[in-house]
User: What shape does this take?
Amino acid sequence: MHGIYTMMNNLVDKAKKGDEFVFFSADVPEKNEEIGKFFAKFDLKRHEKGIITKLISPDKKDHREIFASRPYVVAKYVDFPVPANSIACGNMLAMISWEEKPVAVLINSKQIAQKQKIFFDAMWKIAKK
Assistant: This one.
Protein backbone atom coordinates (compact mmCIF):
# COMPACT_ATOMS: atom_id res chain seq x y z
CA MET A 1 0.00 0.00 0.00
CA HIS A 2 2.91 2.36 0.64
CA GLY A 3 3.80 2.40 -3.07
CA ILE A 4 0.20 3.21 -4.07
CA TYR A 5 0.08 5.98 -1.47
CA THR A 6 3.31 7.44 -2.89
CA MET A 7 1.95 7.21 -6.43
CA MET A 8 -1.25 9.04 -5.44
CA ASN A 9 0.75 11.82 -3.77
CA ASN A 10 2.86 12.07 -6.93
CA LEU A 11 -0.26 12.46 -9.10
CA VAL A 12 -1.64 15.21 -6.88
CA ASP A 13 1.69 16.98 -6.37
CA LYS A 14 2.33 17.27 -10.12
CA ALA A 15 -1.20 18.47 -10.93
CA LYS A 16 -1.92 22.16 -11.38
CA LYS A 17 -4.86 24.26 -10.30
CA GLY A 18 -7.76 23.61 -12.68
CA ASP A 19 -6.48 20.18 -13.77
CA GLU A 20 -9.00 17.37 -13.79
CA PHE A 21 -8.39 14.21 -11.80
CA VAL A 22 -10.74 11.72 -13.46
CA PHE A 23 -11.17 8.12 -12.47
CA PHE A 24 -13.22 5.00 -12.81
CA SER A 25 -13.93 3.45 -9.44
CA ALA A 26 -12.79 0.05 -8.31
CA ASP A 27 -15.39 -2.63 -7.75
CA VAL A 28 -14.07 -5.27 -5.38
CA PRO A 29 -17.17 -5.85 -3.21
CA GLU A 30 -15.27 -7.10 -0.17
CA LYS A 31 -12.88 -4.10 -0.32
CA ASN A 32 -15.01 -1.20 -1.67
CA GLU A 33 -15.33 0.54 1.70
CA GLU A 34 -11.59 0.19 2.42
CA ILE A 35 -10.70 1.48 -1.06
CA GLY A 36 -13.09 4.43 -0.63
CA LYS A 37 -11.45 5.38 2.67
CA PHE A 38 -7.98 5.17 1.09
CA PHE A 39 -8.90 7.57 -1.72
CA ALA A 40 -10.85 9.91 0.57
CA LYS A 41 -7.50 10.81 2.19
CA PHE A 42 -6.59 12.63 -1.02
CA ASP A 43 -9.91 14.44 -1.60
CA LEU A 44 -9.12 17.48 0.55
CA LYS A 45 -5.56 17.73 -0.80
CA ARG A 46 -6.88 17.83 -4.40
CA HIS A 47 -9.61 20.30 -3.46
CA GLU A 48 -7.22 22.66 -1.68
CA LYS A 49 -4.93 22.62 -4.71
CA GLY A 50 -7.85 23.49 -7.03
CA ILE A 51 -7.93 20.12 -8.79
CA ILE A 52 -11.35 19.07 -10.12
CA THR A 53 -12.16 15.47 -9.20
CA LYS A 54 -14.65 13.46 -11.28
CA LEU A 55 -15.61 9.81 -10.93
CA ILE A 56 -17.57 7.27 -12.94
CA SER A 57 -18.71 4.22 -11.02
CA PRO A 58 -20.96 1.22 -11.51
CA ASP A 59 -24.42 2.13 -10.21
CA LYS A 60 -24.46 0.09 -7.02
CA LYS A 61 -25.91 1.00 -3.63
CA ASP A 62 -22.62 0.67 -1.76
CA HIS A 63 -20.83 2.85 -4.32
CA ARG A 64 -23.46 5.58 -4.03
CA GLU A 65 -23.18 5.48 -0.23
CA ILE A 66 -19.37 5.68 -0.32
CA PHE A 67 -19.24 8.60 -2.76
CA ALA A 68 -22.14 10.50 -1.15
CA SER A 69 -19.84 11.09 1.81
CA ARG A 70 -17.08 12.60 -0.35
CA PRO A 71 -18.11 16.24 -1.06
CA TYR A 72 -15.10 17.07 -3.25
CA VAL A 73 -15.79 14.29 -5.75
CA VAL A 74 -18.36 14.78 -8.51
CA ALA A 75 -19.73 11.30 -9.19
CA LYS A 76 -21.78 9.84 -12.00
CA TYR A 77 -22.96 6.27 -12.45
CA VAL A 78 -23.42 3.77 -15.25
CA ASP A 79 -25.28 0.47 -15.56
CA PHE A 80 -22.32 -1.44 -16.98
CA PRO A 81 -18.79 -2.32 -15.85
CA VAL A 82 -16.10 0.33 -16.06
CA PRO A 83 -12.32 -0.04 -16.46
CA ALA A 84 -11.68 -0.55 -12.77
CA ASN A 85 -9.57 1.98 -10.95
CA SER A 86 -7.86 3.84 -13.72
CA ILE A 87 -6.98 7.47 -13.02
CA ALA A 88 -5.96 10.20 -15.45
CA CYS A 89 -4.53 13.50 -14.29
CA GLY A 90 -2.31 15.85 -16.25
CA ASN A 91 0.10 13.77 -18.31
CA MET A 92 -0.21 10.69 -16.13
CA LEU A 93 -2.35 7.58 -16.13
CA ALA A 94 -2.46 5.29 -13.09
CA MET A 95 -3.94 1.83 -13.00
CA ILE A 96 -4.51 0.01 -9.73
CA SER A 97 -5.60 -3.54 -8.99
CA TRP A 98 -7.04 -4.06 -5.52
CA GLU A 99 -7.29 -7.82 -5.71
CA GLU A 100 -5.29 -10.09 -3.37
CA LYS A 101 -2.16 -7.93 -3.17
CA PRO A 102 -2.71 -4.32 -4.34
CA VAL A 103 -0.49 -3.35 -7.26
CA ALA A 104 -0.28 -0.18 -9.36
CA VAL A 105 1.30 1.13 -12.54
CA LEU A 106 1.94 4.80 -13.29
CA ILE A 107 2.41 5.84 -16.90
CA ASN A 108 3.82 9.30 -17.59
CA SER A 109 2.66 9.98 -21.15
CA LYS A 110 0.66 12.95 -22.38
CA GLN A 111 -0.63 10.91 -25.34
CA ILE A 112 -1.85 7.96 -23.24
CA ALA A 113 -3.35 10.19 -20.52
CA GLN A 114 -5.21 12.23 -23.17
CA LYS A 115 -6.68 9.07 -24.75
CA GLN A 116 -7.96 7.96 -21.34
CA LYS A 117 -9.40 11.43 -20.73
CA ILE A 118 -11.21 11.36 -24.09
CA PHE A 119 -12.70 7.99 -23.18
CA PHE A 120 -13.68 9.25 -19.72
CA ASP A 121 -15.34 12.36 -21.18
CA ALA A 122 -17.40 10.22 -23.60
CA MET A 123 -18.56 8.03 -20.70
CA TRP A 124 -19.26 11.13 -18.58
CA LYS A 125 -21.76 12.35 -21.20
CA ILE A 126 -23.87 9.19 -20.90
CA ALA A 127 -23.45 8.55 -17.16
CA LYS A 128 -26.18 9.64 -14.75
CA LYS A 129 -26.09 11.41 -11.40
